[in-house]
Design a protein that fits this description.
Oligomer: single chain
Order of helices and strands: HHHHEEHEEHEHEHEHEHEHEHEHEHHE
CATH superfamily of one domain: Aspartate/ornithine carbamoyltransferase
Strand content: 5-15%
Bound molecules: aspartic acid
Distance between the termini: 14 Å
CATH class of one domain: Alpha Beta
Largest sheet: 5 strands, parallel
Length: 432
C-alpha cells in the first residue's frame, strides 16, 4: 500500500518536473518548498526518510500542471501538435522532421502507452491493421520491437528478412516492392543498407513508411527512444536536458544512431557534446555543423578517460565494421573500453551509461563491458524497454489513432513479473 503510494507520488512528481522542464532545485522553489522536503517525497517507500507529500501541495502541483496545459503551446496532455509528415505524407524518415515541441508531444503520447508496454493495460485501436516489417539488414531489437508495438495496439505483423528471400534478389526495384506491399499492408517499417533508400520506399506509396535504419544514414526511432530515456532518467535524477554534458563514444562515422541522436539533442540548448572516437571514425563534419547551434559546445577527442569526465550521459556505440570502406581498425583497443573500473574512476554516481545495442561481446571487441550489469547507472535495458512505448506512439500518430488510445484501455488479464530482468534496478519496476 505504502509502496504503491510512494511509486505513484514519485512518478507524479517526476512527470511534472519533466513536463515543466524544471530541475529538482527549480521545481522546489516553484512550489515553494525546500529542496530537502521534495527529496523526501521522491524517495522509495523502503527508505526511513520517505515522506508523503501534503495533500495541499499535491493539489497545487496539479493546478500548475493544468494551467500549463491551458497556457502553453506544448500542452501537457494534448497530442495535437504532433504531426509526423514528410512532403505532406505521414512517414518517419529522419529526426529532421521533429521540433523540440513535436518530440515532446510524442513523448507525452509514449507516456500514455506505458501501461500497455508494461502489460497492465491492453488496447485494440489498431485492430484489423497489418504492418509490413521489411528488414534487409540484420536486426533483433528494432524488428521485434516495431512488431510488438504494432501488436500491442491490436494490429498484426507480416515480416520479411534479408534480400535472399525477397524479390529484390530477382532484381525488383524499390519502387515496385514498395507499391506492391502497400496493397497488402497499412504501414511499412524498412531497414536497408543504402543511405536514402527508405525515402525511396516512401516516395512510392501513400501509406506510412518508417525508417528503421538506412545504412550509415539515420535511425530516427532509436534516437527518439534514446532521448525519451534520457528525459525519463533525468527527471528521476532531478536534471534537465538543456545544459547537459553528453559524451558519445565509438564509431561516430558510420553509427547512424549517433547521427540521429546528436541532431535530436541539438534541439535543446547549452548542451556540451564530447565526441570521442578513434581518428578514422570521427563524426562527419556535416553533423558537427548541425549540432553546433543553440549555444551548444562540441568537443572532439580520442582520449576516452578525459572525455568522460563530468558527463551526465555516456553513449557508447559498436564499431560498424560491416560498413567499413578502407578503414583498418578492427575493434576498440583495450584502453578504449568502457567498463566498471573506468566508470568508477571517472563517472559520477548519476552518470547514465547508454548504448543502442547490440554490443559486441566477443573477445577483443572491447565494446561496452558486461561487468557493468549490476550497476544501476547502466541504462541499456531501460533504453530497450522504452522502445515499445515510443514505437507505439509513432504508429498511433502516423495512423491517426492517438486520441483514441486513452479511452480504449482495458485491464490486462494475465500476470506479468514486477521486474522483467533479474538485474533491473529498483526504479525499473513495472509499476515504477
Ligand atoms: N542497432 C543499431 C543499428 O542498427 C546499432 C548497431 O547496430 O550498432 O544501427
Amino acid at each position: 500500500m505504502v509502496l504503491a503510494m510512494s511509486i505513484q507520488q514519485q512518478s507524479f512528481l517526476r512527470d511534472t518536473m519533466r513536463r515543466l522542464n524544471l530541475t529538482r532545485e527549480a521545481f522546489s522553489s516553484r512550489i515553494g518548498v525546500s529542496r530537502r522536503a521534495l527529496d523526501t517525497w521522491l524517495l522509495p517507500a523502503e527508505s526511513q526518510e520517505f515522506r508523503r507529500m501534503p495533500e495541499i501541495v499535491e493539489r497545487f502541483v496539479s493546478e500548475i500542471l493544468a494551467s500549463a496545459a491551458h497556457t502553453s503551446t506544448q500542452s501537457v496532455y494534448s497530442t495535437s501538435d504532433l504531426s509526423i509528415t514528410h512532403e505532406g505524407k505521414p512517414c518517419l524518415l529522419s529526426v529532421d522532421q521533429f521540433s523540440r515541441g513535436s518530440a515532446e508531444a510524442l513523448f507525452r503520447l509514449a507516456d500514455v502507452m506505458q501501461p500497455i508496454a508494461r502489460r497492465q493495460k491492453i488496447s485494440r485501436v489498431l485492430e484489423g491493421a497489418v504492418l509490413g516489417n521489411l528488414f534487409f539488414e540484420a536486426s533483433t531489437r528494432t524488428r521485434v520491437s516495431f512488431g510488438a508495438a504494432f501488436c500491442r495496439l491490436g494490429g498484426s505483423v507480416c515480416d520479411t528478412t534479408g534480400f535472399t528471400f525477397s524479390s529484390m534478389a530477382k532484381g525488383e526495384s524499390i519502387y515496385d516492392t514498395s507499391r506492391v506491399l502497400s496493397g497488402y499492408v497499412d504501414a511499412l517499417v524498412v531497414r536497408h543498407p543504402d543511405q536514402g533508400s527508405v525515402a525511396e520506399f516512401a516516395r512510392a506509396t501513400n501509406i506510412p513508411v518508417l525508417n528503421a535504419g538506412d545504412g550509415p544514414g539515420e535511425h530516427p526511432s532509436q534516437a527518439l527512444l534514446d532521448l525519451y530515456t534520457i528525459q525519463r532518467e533525468f527527471s528521476r535524477l532531478g536534471k534537465i536536458v538543456d545544459g547537459a554534458h553528453i559524451a558519445i563514444v565509438g564509431d561516430l562515422k558510420y553509427g547512424r544512431t549517433v547521427h540521429s541522436l546528436s541532431k535530436l539533442l541539438a534541439l535543446y540548448s547549452g548542451i556540451k557534446f564530447t565526441l570521442i572516437a578513434p581518428a578514422e571514425l570521427e563524426m562527419p563534419a556535416h553533423i558537427i555543423e548541425r549540432i553546433a547551434v543553440n549555444g551548444n559546445v562540441v568537443e572532439q577527442t580520442s582520449d576516452l578517460v578525459n572525455g568522460l569526465r563530468g558527463a551526465d550521459v555516456v553513449y557508447a556505440t559498436r564499431i560498424q565494421k560491416e560498413r567499413f570502406a578502407n578503414e583498418t581498425i578492427e575493434g576498440y583497443t583495450p584502453e578504449f573500453q568502457i567498463n566498471q573500473a573506468l566508470v568508477n574512476s571517472v563517472c559520477g554516481p548519476d552518470t547514465l551509461i547508454m548504448h543502442p545495442l547490440p554490443r559486441d561481446s566477443r573477445p577483443g571487441a572491447n565494446d561496452l563491458g558486461t561487468d557493468l550489469l549490476h550497476d544501476p547507472r547502466l541504462a541499456i535495458f531501460r533504453q530497450t524497454d522504452n522502445g515499445i512505448p515510443v514505437r507505439m506512439a509513432l504508429f498511433a500518430s502516423l495512423l491517426g489513432v492517438a486520441d483514441q488510445v486513452p479511452h480504449s484501455l482495458r485491464d490486462a488479464s494475465w500476470k506479468a513479473p514486477r521486474f522483467i530482468g533479474p538485474d533491473d534496478a529498483l526504479f525499473h519496476g513495472m509499476d515504477g
